[in-house]
Amino acid sequence: MTDEDLIRRFRIWYATLIRLYPKHYHDRFADPMVQTFEDILREQSKEKNRLLSCAFWLFVETSVEICKENLRVIIMQNLVRELADNSYRIAIGIALTAALLLLLFYGAVVEEGDSPGPMFFASIITLITGVLIARLEPYKMFYALFATAVAQVLFTMFAMIAWGQYFEVLVFNLLFIALWIASASLFRRAGKLKGAAENA
Amino acid sequence: MMPKRTSHTPLTPAVLHILLALSTKERHGYGIMKEVESDSLGKVKMGPGTLYGSIRRMIDAGLICESDKRIDPQADDERRIYYKITGVGQRALAAELRRYREVVTIAKRRRLAYD
């Protein structure tokens, strides 16, 4: 495969990667970014440097910036706007409290010399993934928190089968399932209010 | 006398180098990247992600803006966007360079710099 073919292929992949930027950012900078990416690779090719390592570095560098830009949008735009609503504020508070309690519990268990295993993090990982996909939009957050509650239910079933301490496992996990569902319901309410306000 | 602090100073190294690169003429993204690398003797290397992230923040802060000039006569590609420094950007750059001079003066006074 010639350098020209490689550059063309990397260019297509890079254009696909930068689609992960927030839309307004992508619309504004996608073309010049792809152009700059191509310029760098062409120069590397002209100087007989290794294209693969350079392209890899550019993909990693841009991926990091994509995460930073998305987080900025999530925090600065969505969160600030949505926090004006009481239901949304309480929902965020409950979700954060539950996540924090779960992590504290994990720390306490580990300190006692036990290890609850990676399944313990099923709900937290579901929550984080859900929040990133939902970008803090109330209706999508409802689904994210609902999925988190489902993950907690699955973990409960797994823990009851694996550990056999039915009562403790059930009581402990029911608390978290209730918190995730309460948070999901409040997000749903916030979403409904937002929808009604937008339609008015 | 301490330099007057503007709302944009101190600047991050990336912003300072981009402003320096644009202080002489309008450049497109890759042109800025090459100039920054040359100005910093290869010590500051930016990828497109960092570069355009900085450009976005600088446009929002009014330090630079897009130029009407779109086509590089040599590269002849209309996807290239040229950027130029604004009056705010020039003032921020001047203030930052003054701040650097003051820091160097202090360092010399304390015999920390020996050139």
Overall mean pLDDT of chain B stands at: 84
Question: Structural class of the helices, strands and pairings of chain A?
Answer: mainly alpha
Give the CA-based shape of chain A. Answer: flat
Helix content estimate of chain B: 40-55%
Mean pLDDT of chain A: 87
CA-atom Rg of chain A in angstroms: 23 Å
The most extensive contact between chains is: A-B, 22 and 17 residues
Q: What is the rounded distance between the termini of chain B? A: 22 Å
Q: Regions of chain B with pLDDT < 50 over 5+ consecutive residues?
A: none
Tell me the Rg of chain B in angstroms: 16 Å
Largest sheet of chain B: 3 strands, antiparallel
- Give the fraction of residues assigned to helices of chain A: over 70%
- Principal-axes geometry of chain B comes out as globular
**Quaternary:** heterodimer
Biggest sheet character of chain A: none
Strand content of chain A: under 5%
SSE string of chain B, helices as H and strands as E = HEHHEEH
Q: State which percent range the strand residues of chain B make up.
A: 5-15%
Uncertain segments of chain A are: none
